[in-house]
Amino acid sequence: MTHSHFCSLFRVHPQPTMVIVNNTTTSSSTFLLTAFPGLEVAHIWISIPVCCLYTIALLGNSMILFVIIAEQSLHKPMYYFLSMLSVVDLGLTISTLPTVLGVLWFHSVEISFKACRIQMLFVHGFSLLESSVLEAMAFDRFMAICYPLKYATVLTHMMILVIGLVICLRQVIFLFSMALALKNVSFHGGQELSHPFCYHPDVIKYSYSNPWISSFLGMFLQLYLCGTDLLFILLSYALILRTVRNIVAPKKQQKALSTCVCHLCAVTVFYVPMISLSFTHRLLNSTPKVVCSILANVYLLLPPVLNPVIYSLKTKTIRQAVLRLLQSKGSRGSNVRSLTGG
To answer: What is the average per-residue pLDDT within 222-246?
Structure first.
């Protein structure tokens, strides 16, 4: 038997490889999700506060949305933008909920490349939407304080609809561009991610192409889109402060600034964790995975949890509308019980 015949008998055909990580056998066409690396034994206990936060986010934003739709007195530009923010926060919460609870409750750590790409589109898509809505809310505050007489004529229902459509169009362009960029990217399979969901800077470092180029292109896009939003917000508040300084009466100054407190809190809660996480992934390679995991959970969970709480506590009209709604539900329930003889 010749050497060539011998080799043909034992020719190795490429097959999908299997990788064993942390006693888990995984296919080469999947990633491994992690939640709080090094604390796997305590996942059940960690899941309790995490579930509470998800519940607050879902119920809080749903309540804000329902109250604004139900209460005719809240059909104003400021509250329309707040309802947009609640919708985005619900989307951001739902986009990570299945994988986070899957890892914490069922140790379901595998995610296919396709599912990972889809989740990345949702996570980054809703993040950009939140940034755009916060920018629109800054414009609303700018018009209300700097040009109060023109506020009603500029921010009409049609103008709010146009702003909403522009935000959606911008989003579609971003998602289409991101989907095209990720379509032909190949990844090293069986790699362990830093989070219980797919986040672009974390995933892209395992691509076969130069990860540095892809990562910094992603950071440029994030800085260009979210950075321009943040610059517009800062410019709006610089003009607002200049206008407030020219108000003579201290009470009127305080009243004008008090209408901006909730929005400033929402901006801080969203942008500070986002910028911190982005730079931690791209510039600080030595950062422990558990730190990245905590930052990621703060970035994606804190805004949806705190936004409805802040607006409910600090906005008197929202608080009163919620109380009225709860009282009407309670009185309706008592009437039904009295009629049924319960």
So the answer is: 89
CA 204 to chain centre: 19
The two three-digit tokens of residue 75, written as one number:
């059909």
pLDDT at 65 over 90: yes
Q: CA geometry: angle at 257 spanning 254 and 262, to 5°? A: 130
Percent of the chain with pLDDT over 70: 81
- Quick one: which of 214, 215, 217 has its CA closest to 225? 217
Q: In sequence order, what DSSP letters do the residues of 43-58 get, joined into one string?
A: HHHHHHHHHHHHHHHH
Q: What is the pTM of this model?
A: 0.84
What H or E segment, with its residue span, contains residue 324? helix 316-340
Give CA–CA dist 282/278, Å, rounded.
6
**Residue 190: how many other CB atoms lie within 10 Å:** 21
Q: How many CB atoms lie within 10 A of CB 329?
A: 10
